[in-house]
User: Fold this.
Amino acid sequence: MKAIHGGKAKNDKIDAHKIAVRLRGGMVPMAYVYPPEMRATRDLLRRRCHLRRKRAEVLAHIHNTHSHYNLPEIGQKAAYKANGEGVAEPFPEPRVGRTLEMDGALIDPYDKLLGEGELSITRTAKAHDVHTSARLQSVPGIGTTPALVIRYEIHDIARFPRVQDFVSYCRLVKYAKESAGKPHGLSGNTIGNPQLKGAFSEAAVLCLRLNQPWQRVLCQTGA
Assistant:
């Protein structure tokens, strides 16, 4: 609203008039009203994604610390309690080992919170629309949680008039920048729904992992 000409004065009446003028001219798209009874579950799913990222950062720090000190790779997933024991022993500096011990102590609480949250989400999803989630899981690469994310973030696919609109909403399209007929790279990396992009990216990786013919095609095309 501040970028609009004559926008120094600001109050509810002025803002409402500016928004109405832009709606009438088609410059502001109509927002989609998400069903109130499903919003709490969708927000819990989004919070789960945040906790998953934080957990991944902790695990990445443990593995990267070994690389920084030119030590051999752990070789096993540090997320498992049995594998996480002893990761701080190879370091001669005790403070480095203490740092990794702090990282290891954070993994168990994250796992507990994520497990409890996913159980609550799964139980609630059965009351909303269990059939759609089950059909999504029949797609190669889409597991239980990604199916729930896709279900709750989209809700109604009919709200997208074109396939291009849906792909753009999923953060899967970048926009070209151009000035005076010359391209200046791409932009728009943060325009769209980050949860949907994460779910589809995870599904694509898992699908390729289990599909050798597609792996060969990608290797041949250089993708």
Q: What stands out?
A: The first strand starts at residue 175 and ends at 179.
